[in-house]
Design goal:
about 25% helix, Agglutinin, subunit A, alpha+beta, flat, five-stranded antiparallel beta sheet, single chain
């Protein structure tokens, strides 16, 4: 009897254990998940249960990573209806409805997925993909009743569909959290618009903020998406049933796409080596063309141009303000109206993100020639293009409305704009205009005759001048015989200005025109013949710099175009004269304001924070997004120039170095730069990398917040430099005391503290601990939790041996550069 009882007891326990194991990743209709209980996916990657975000005490049902990055939430059920205590329960009704109840049994959230057919065998399962699925298992073929992947939040996981189900009308959109502590829907909405050719939009409330552009066969035009690539594959499906975009991971890598509360979209990748998320890509409207419809209809926007807006060919500004400047909010209008009976022609525009395609028409089987004919036959057609750029282009896309929100970029896509035939061929002339043309022709004929005679007289002079010009070119190309082909190619991208023109612009380098002095030589303000103000940098005879720095500056900056980099307009190489001509910066350099007791009051906190963000975007462009990847090597307050609106522009690329791909570090025997901004690994061992620029940026951030120079800083209680003082205050929880007194009235304390924190992360002693500039930009614009910094370089409490090795570096190895 006792043996039988023991066998029965053992069987019951074994049954319960097996039942528990079988339902580890599921919830059936007879189960309740209470606050504190969880279910886990088979591969242990994802976990579901109750949680509280950030500093909030509210309770939500969510899904988060378990195997890696524990607590990183990817989906929330009751975003708008939290529970204020830990009495919540998650259950599944026998009709297939997923419910969250509070302690008093009130339903505070429902999946609204109940079905009426009976009998029903339903179960909820957390899949290895992170998808929570309600299954109907009453038949052989299991049927999905509801799934969390149909209701994305702020996270886009591999396998998720982003788009619209045309059969049910369900839209799969992304809505960021309100804040890191509040997962309720924020004010931004990311969605695919299907009214016409599909394209991706971002809306803030009812206002369209920006547009990614239509799908072109490989990607949405405005996305910084590399397709194909070895890490993930992307797919865009467009048929009668649904229109959606999704991506799948090709390897074992873990990725997610997150929309942050301030509407910055980041693609994050888990790194097993460092056990942290790395920013793989970032999408944000950071340039001057970021806003939707900025330039109005029939105008195109280019962030590297000022002003960025310009009418398309065949169009003119619709409204002119005082001084004949275009009011771009009204856009452009046709110079000559389209008249269907009079015929039309097409103007090809290359390298653009297509205009808004809402209301457009498309056909995937038509050729470009058939597309042109279709547009020509429809009087109200305004433009046409290939809808798919793969294999040389295919498909047809027609526009029938105003061409709105066109942006110029490097994509090899062509847009064909319909213009009146007379716009390209010329209008039919009236008798009065013919008489006028005859008079003009006669005058031109006589003038040409005189010119021909003068040409014969001047022929010998021209040949002589040509020989002199050829000699100058030979001298110029001889500057670097080792790399002659690259040197020639880069020079050809910039105007070669005559010495005579520069002398005239600067009143023969008048002392009254001098605005600064740097390591290269003096800088003068000049005015060119067309009235443009410029800054002229002339190599001095006593400069330690010369041909190498001159050439390096041109090679680096000639290929760089960014709103936060100073623009090189031209150069002069005439015998011993080496001259660089830049755009003129009205407010000169940052150090003139930052470290001057009177002028510093002109830099309130919003201006300083804008300067910090602008510098970060400029350095990020140099490191990652430019045609040439650049390490600047001499970032300092004197090399940050300010335009009329106090926007920062990075200057002085004489010491910059190029790198390719992952080759981000190198070593040199000659250390160049400016004390106070040089990283320890560079000063001591001659090793420089992109992390050297990150270090210099961190020093600049702390100088901007404090208004004090790193090298000249002193304190009554200790011998720390500015970095050590900032670190000491941070450890004591008194970071706000680093802020200079003039900022008290204008400061935003969370932004100040975040800037100090980011600055300390950038000046950490070891290069590997410092973040990349991509991470820095993300940390500055988001409210994410920041990692704890380690001690900064050259901190006085560290061992004296390293400090002694730094101080023993031969001063002649450092090239001191000063503000322009």
């Amino acid at each position: 009897m006792e043996i039988g009882y023991m066998i029965l007891l053992f069987s019951c326990v074994l049954f319960l254990l097996l039942s528990s194991c079988a339902t580890l990743n599921t919830i059936s209709t007879n189960q309740v998940i209470k606050d504190g209980d969880t279910i886990v996916s088979d591969d242990n990657m994802f976990e579901l249960g109750f949680f509280s975000p950030g500093r909030s005490k509210n309770r939500y049902v969510g899904i988060w990573y378990k195997k890696i990055s524990t607590g990183t939430v990817v989906w929330v059920a009751n975003r708008e209806t939290p529970i204020t205590d830990k009495s919540g329960m998650l259950e599944l009704s026998r009709h297939g409805n997923l419910l969250i109840r509070s302690g008093d049994n009130t339903v505070i959230w429902s999946s609204n997925s109940a079905i009426s057919t009976m009998p029903v065998v339903v179960v909820v399962q957390l899949l290895d993909t992170g998808n929570l699925v309600v299954w109907d298992r009453s038949t052989k073929n299991e049927c999905v009743i509801w799934q969390s992947f149909d209701h994305p939040g702020n996270t886009f996981l591999p396998g998720m569909k982003f788009g619209k189900d045309l059969a049910t009308g369900r839209e799969r959109v992304m809505i960021p959290w309100k804040s890191v502590d509040d997962p309720s829907p924020g004010e931004y909405l990311h969605y695919i618009d299907t009214n016409g050719y599909p394209q991706m939009f971002v809306r803030q409330g009812s206002v369209i903020r920006w547009r990614y552009g239509p799908w072109n066969g490989l990607k949405f035009q405005g996305l910084r998406l590399k397709n194909p690539n070895p890490i993930y594959s992307v797919q865009f499906v467009m048929n009668e049933k649904e229109i959606y975009f999704k991506y799948e991971i090709k390897s074992s890598a873990v990725q997610r796409v997150v929309v942050l509360p301030d509407d910055i979209t980041v693609r994050l990748r888990w790194m097993d080596q460092t056990q942290e998320w790395t920013v793989h890509n970032i999408e944000a409207p950071t340039d001057s063309c970021g806003g939707y419809g900025l330039c109005g209809p029939y105008a195109s926007c280019n962030a590297n141009r000022y002003p960025p807006c310009r009418c398309m060919a065949g169009f003119k500004p619709q409204v002119l303000d005082e001084w004949d400047r275009a009011n771009w909010s009204s856009g452009c209008e046709r110079k000559r109206a389209l008249v269907c009976e009079c015929g039309s022609e097409f103007k090809k525009i290359s390298g653009v993100i297509f205009p808004d395609t809402r209301g457009s028409w498309y056909n995937h089987s038509m050729t470009l020639e058939e597309c042109e004919m279709a547009c020509r036959m429809k009087c109200n057609c305004t433009a046409y293009a290939n809808s798919d750029i793969r294999n040389g282009g295919s498909g047809c896309l027609l526009w029938f409305d105003e061409l709105m929100d066109t942006t110029e970029n490097d994509d090899k896509q062509d847009l064909y704009i319909k213009l009146a035939a007379s716009e390209l061929a010329g209008k039919q002339d009236s008798p009065s205009s013919l008489n006028k043309k005859k008079r003009v022709f006669t005058a031109v004929f006589l003038t040409t005759s005189v010119v021909l005679l003068l040409f014969m007289v001047a022929y010998a002079c021209i040949k002589k001048q040509k020989r002199l010009h050829m000699k100058e070119r030979e001298d110029r190309y001889a500057l670097d015989k080792k790399d002659n082909s690259v040197w020639m190619e880069d020079l050809d991208e910039l105007p070669l200005l005559s010495l005579n023109k520069i002398v005239k612009a600067t009143d023969n380098f008048s002392i009254n025109k001098k605005i600064g002095e740097g390591g290269f030589g003096p800088v003068y303000k000049g005015v060119l013949e067309d009235g443009q103000e410029v800054a002229v940098k002339r190599l001095s005879e006593t400069s330690q710099q010369g041909i190498e720095e001159f050439k390096n500056e041109i090679i680096c900056i000639a290929k760089l175009q960014h709103r936060n980099l100073v623009k090189l307009l031209g150069y002069c190489n005439h015998r011993t004269e080496l001259i660089l001509v830049y755009e003129y910066m009205t407010n000169k350099s940052l150090d003139l304001y930052l470290f001057d007791e009177t002028r510093s009051s002109m830099l309130d906190w919003p201006k300083r924070f804008n300067i910090i963000q602008g510098m970060a975007r400029g350095i990020l462009y140099l490191h990652q997004d430019s045609r040439l990847q650049i390490i600047h090597r001499d970032l300092k307050a004197g090399n940050i120039l300010l335009d009329g609106d106090m926007n920062p522009k990075i200057s002085d690329f004489g010491l910059a170095r190029k790198f390719v791909g992952s080759d981000t570090a190198t070593k040199t025997k000659k250390v160049v730069g400016t004390y106070g901004y040089i990283s320890p690994e560079y000063a001591v061992h001659g090793r420089f990398s992109i992390k050297s620029d990150v270090y210099s940026f961190g020093v600049l951030v702390l100088e901007i917040v404090s208004g004090r120079k790193n090298r000249e800083f002193s304190h009554d209680d200790h011998n720390d430099n500015l970095l050590g003082h900032a670190w000491r205050l941070y450890k004591q929880g008194r970071s706000i005391e680093l802020m200079c007194a003039s900022l008290r009235a204008s400061c935003v304390i969370p932004e100040v503290l975040r800037s100090i924190h980011v600055g300390l992360l950038c000046v950490q002693n070891h290069a590997k601990d410092r973040p990349t500039m991509l991470s820095v930009v993300l940390m500055l614009v988001s409210e994410s939790v920041l990692p704890q910094p380690k001690h900064p370089a050259f901190y006085s409490e560290e061992s004296s041996s390293e400090l002694e090795s730094v101080s023993s570096v031969d001063g002649s190895m450092i090239t001191h550069l000063y503000a322009r």
